[in-house]
Design a protein that fits this description.
The chain is an alpha/beta fold and about 210 residues long. The protein is built from 9 helices and 6 strands, in the order βαβαβααβαβααααβ. The longest helix is centred in the middle third of the chain and has 16 residues. The two termini are about 25 Å apart.
């Protein structure tokens, strides 16, 4: 268990895929309490991603899910910035929104299911660029896990059948995302966006779903 005089609470970015619920379970095993946030890609996808995330939230013992209507926000990134940086820019936006919501939920940090090198965008340099936008510490319990081990845990904890299927979060992403964009380049492209407005719109649109 985490040695802390006060119980740790984290806001988990729950996508509906295989990795994020396992990240949440691992944190729970270390005594971390969780809230969950899901970034919906509607209207670019149907409601399937949100429905999966809600089922996964319930499976890992949560009673509610905070849903951000992120589709239009991510659409702005695709429209105005270099699409090769889409995954970095969208995750920096998610980190800002989650980091702003977390304290209101009593969370001292945010958590993700990101895994180093598992997909082309999740390089050390890119993850570092994402962290630079996060107002709170980012926990990544799966950082060095092998995908086979994550799938084995998903089967063991009975989340795999809910999570399996296409990764909806890739729907707006490029075929060849940047794997090592310099922070200066990321920030330059981000300057094409009204990030403060996107964060405000995301927070204003948050709705709570009972699971």
């Amino acid at each position: 268990m985490l040695a802390s005089p006060q119980r740790t609470k984290a806001l988990l970015l729950l996508s509906g895929g295989i990795d994020s619920p396992i990240a949440g379970k691992l944190l729970q095993e270390q005594g971390v309490e969780l809230e969950a946030i899901h970034f919906s890609l509607e209207p670019f996808t149907d409601s399937g991603g949100e429905e999966k995330a809600a089922r996964l939230a319930k499976k890992i013992g949560l009673s509610r899910l905070h849903v951000v209507p992120a589709g239009p926000l991510f659409g702005e990134i695709v429209k105005r910035a270099d699409q090769r940086l889409y995954f970095i820019l969208s995750k920096r936006l998610m980190a800002r929104i989650a980091g702003a919501l977390a304290p209101k939920l009593g969370c001292a940090c945010i958590a993700t299911g990101e895994n180093l090198g598992q997909v082309s965008s999740q390089t050390l340099q890119n993850l570092t660029s994402i962290d630079r936008a996060a107002p709170l510490p980012v926990l990544r319990p799966l950082l060095a896990y092998d995908k086979v081990d994550i799938v084995d845990l998903a089967r063991e904890w009975d989340t795999f059948d809910i999570s399996k299927g296409p990764e909806l979060c890739d729907v707006l992403g490029p075929e060849k995302p940047s794997t090592g964009a310099a922070l200066e380049r990321v920030e330059k492209e981000e300057g094409r966006l009204d990030m403060a407005d996107l964060v405000k719109r995301g927070l204003d649109g948050v709705r709570v779903v009972a699971v």
